[in-house]
Structures are given as structure tokens and as C-alpha cells.
Amino acid sequence: MSPSVLPDGDPVPADGALPHGIAPDPSVDFGVYLHIPFCRVRCGYCDFNTYTAEELRGERREDYPDAVAREIALAAAVLGGTRRPAQTVFFGGGTPTLLPAGALVRMLDDVRGAFGIAADAEVTVEANPDTVTEDSLRELADAGVTRVSIGMQSAVPHVLASLDRTHDPANVATAVAAARAAGLAVSLDLIYGAPGESLDDWRTSVRTALDLAPDHLSAYALIIEDGTQLARRIRRGEVPVPDDDLQAEMYELVDDLTRAAGFDWYEVSNWARDAAQRSRHNLAYWRGTDWWGFGPGAHSHVAGVRWWNVKHPAAYAQRLGKGVSPAAAREVPDAQAQVLERILLQSRIREGLAVDAVPAARRTGIAGLIADGLVEGADAVRGRIVLTRRGRLLADAVVRALTE
Ligand SMILES: C[S@@+](CC[C@H](N)C(=O)[O-])C[C@H]1O[C@@H](n2cnc3c(N)ncnc32)[C@H](O)[C@@H]1O
Ligand code: SF4
User: Fold this and answer.
1) SS3 16
2) What is the residue-averaged pLDDT of the chain?
3) Number of H helices, E strands in the chain
4) Distance between Cα 43 and ligand 2 center (Å)
5) Which residue lies with its CA nearest to atom 6 of ligand 2?
6) Model-level pTM?
7) 350 lies in a domain?
């Protein structure tokens, strides 16, 4: 994922080399993220780093794989002897499936050539339900893709309309069937709390999603991102602000319905049919292992160094065309920042956060979190901080209690 506003940071040398004396640990898993920054239209709620055809300033989508190939070659040179086969590859967007399958296959082949891809790797492509066919999914599966994550968002026409989604809800079932026929695992993305969405609407969406028998489900509370069309409409009073209490009820409902369908939560917004269906790529982010994010605005994390690329596809291609790293800036978080980040990320997952990872001065607060029903007592006895359902609803408050 690529947030819309890039942080400040230190400069990155033209060859992209890691800071002196820092090298990846070959025993740490390595993941690859490939950002595909194109969408046919921009949904009113979305502030991902993505561009419609008119916003590309003459940059051509068909040239994009060439630019990515240059960044892959640069990464191979930076990692040199410490290169490891990718355990996971994730094509995210934007809308990866707006590119022809052949373009995605070429990028995957370039990753394979540069790093290798583990034999049992998880390779995911995010897809918009309108932009996949059985043929395109078969081509992806033949090239090594194992999983497709479909942006369903809702099954209810007025909710889709309030989200500016243009896809026909019937296309979700068609896309799922096509993915199954191609032998791919299926994940569905839903959003809850859209303007005008009732609890019954949400129940309909979750049931419809579960009736499609996916292997994995993500359900995100709608976030009103600054600078989006939706934020402007709310400011002008044209649509109401999502109601926190209703969103909490919606979260409980999706948790109940997924559990009844045999799913388990493994991250605050993610449920899987069984452990093998959990997104290994996203778990790697939460666990803090190494990944290289390719593409404009993509973030990377290797050997404790974080960097992020320039945002516009034209600037990205231009820099790589000159043989210069597309990284805009980087940082090496200090020990305090690393502790905070670890708590933020690992408290969200079912395997939890080691009690030892909490600063000693804050550990006394854990008993209070258990008494408040936010943290599981039995797991804490085993040395892990695992959120209860109430804790998942109030995850930010738990993080504050463990850090401030
Ligand atoms: C890059 S998109 C998925 C692929 C494809 N572009 C699509 O939308 O169908 C990733 C997911 O982020 C979620 N998302 C984007 N903006 C959001 C927001 N403001 N609040 C909550 N979820 C959001 C959506 O569920 C979306 O499916
Ligand atoms: S299609 Fe996906 S990435 Fe594109 S604007 Fe909509 S939510 Fe954002």
C-alpha cells in the first residue's frame, strides 16, 4: 500500500545503496510488493497513490513494466550477495488487473530472474471485479500467481453508489468463479460504514461475500481520508460522517458471521478459513520482516532501513531512465521508534505481541487492560498480548496504554 503523503527523511544515494555497514540478514524472509498505480476512475473515498489516464502526464501504462524492470535490476545490485528468493509477492494498487495479464507476468518473471521466487511462495494480485476474465486469471495462474484479492466492497447497489464504485455487483461472483476455475485462492475486500449504509445492508454484503465461499475476507472500516471527494462532500454537509457506534456494531457482525462460517480472525481486519489461507505477505508487514516495494510511492523495509519512492509514475520512470534510484528519502528508525512500531503492528495480529516487547515501565498497565476486557488474560500468562474482540475495536487505545 502507498499512503498519499510521503514523510520527510534522509536522502538516498543515486545507486540506492543501503547505509554503510547495514546488510540484510539472510535468515529473514524477503517479500516483494509491486505497486500498479493505475485506475480507470478514482473512487471518492480512496487516497491511494493511483492515477487515471488523464492524470498520467503523458506517461504510458504500457511502458510501466520497463520502469519496474529497471528498479528490479537496481534492487538486485543493492542486495547483491544478500539476495534471497521472495517468499511472497503482492501486486497491489491501484488496479493491477487494469494492465494486461502479460504485463504482470513479465514483472513476475523479472522478479524471478533477479531474486528467485520460493517454490511455495504466495503470489497475490489485487483485482477489480470488472477487470478480470477467466483467460487473464489462467494466464496469471500459469505464471505462478496463487491468489487473487477482489475489491468487492459491498453487495448493495446504493452502498456501492455512495462509494462511487462502478462495478456491477454480479461481476464479483463471475470473478470468483473465474478465479476458482484458474485454481487460484480467493480473498474478498469489503468496506463498512459507507454513508447511508445500515446494519442490514452490511449483513447482506457479508452474507453475500461468505456465500461465494472465499478463502479469506478483509473488512475495513471506511476511513475518511483528507483530500478525497468523500471528505469534501462530508465537509459540505452533503453526506453524514460515519457513526462510530454503528461501525463498531458492523465489526461485531462481520466477526460473528465469519466465525459462524468457519473463519477465524488473524489480524484486526482480516479473517481466514484456516491458517494456510492467511495472507503471508501482509503478515510479513505486521511481523516486520524485509520487503522491497517497487513502483511509484511504494515503501520498502530492508534490514531496519525504511525508504519510499517518488509518487508520480512520470517522476519514477524519469529517475530510473537516468539510472537513478527512485527513492525519495529514507530513515533508520531509532530504538524508541522501533519499539513503538513493533507494538503498533504486532498488537493487531492474532499471534500477538510478546510482553517483553513492551517497555518495562508500561508492563504494569497490562493487568488493567485485561481487567477492562481488552487483552486476553490466558495469552498474557503465556507472555503474549492478544486483543479480545473489544480490544480489537479499541486497538488504538490499547497501543496508547502500552506506549504513552
Ligand atoms: C487498492 S484497493 C483494491 C483493488 C482495487 N483497486 C479495488 O478497489 O477493487 C485496496 C483496498 O483498500 C480498501 N480501501 C481503500 N480506501 C479505503 C478507505 N478510505 N477506507 C477503508 N478502506 C479503503 C478497499 O477495500 C480496497 O479494496
Ligand atoms: S479502484 Fe481501488 S485503488 Fe482505485 S480508486 Fe478505487 S479503491 Fe482506490
Assistant:
1) coil
2) 95
3) 16, 14
4) 6
5) 43
6) 0.96
7) yes
